[in-house]
Design goal:
Elements: E1 3-7, E2 10-13, E3 18-25, E4 34-39, E5 46-51, E6 58-60, E7 68-73, E8 78-83, E9 92-99, E10 114-117, E11 121-126
Parallel strand pairs: 2-11
Antiparallel strand pairs: 1-3, 3-8, 4-5, 4-9, 5-6, 7-8, 9-10, 9-11
Length: about 130
């Protein structure tokens, strides 16, 4: 079982930027697609961005397209989420997750496809 630890969250003004990191331990994540999800109070968890195990395919929620970028550094066993032009509606707890099955083609958009989750990091965007 892989352990995932998110970091980089915090309080930022609207229009600002944050870079989230998801460090994996216990197993390499190089063969697993990865995803970033978020959950705001009173709302369901939603996918924000996902990346294939090779890094060749990515997916973004419509609400973050053009503002967020997901990337991975398999040598560091780490996945990143660069968040620019942040809006108050981006406020949520952000989670990273690793695919249940290695070497699957493409990206996973559903939470049920992920088997390992981090504890989450809070992102708060003030207006």
């Amino acid at each position: 079982q892989v352990q995932l630890v998110e970091s980089g969250g915090g309080l930022v003004q609207a229009g600002g930027s944050l870079r989230l990191s998801c460090a994996a331990s216990g197993r390499t994540i190089s063969r697993y697609s990865m995803g970033w999800f978020r959950q705001a109070p009173g709302k369901e968890r939603e996918v924000v961005a996902a990346i294939s195990w090779s890094g060749g395919s990515t997916h973004y929620a419509d609400s973050v397209k053009g503002r967020f970028t997901i990337s991975r550094d398999n040598a560091k066993n780490t996945v990143y989420l660069q968040m620019n032009s942040l809006k108050p509606e981006d406020t949520a707890v952000y989670y990273c997750a690793a695919d249940l099955i290695p070497l699957r083609v493409g990206v996973r958009r559903a939470a049920a496809d992920y088997g390992s989750w981090g504890q989450g990091t809070q992102v708060t965007v003030s207006s």
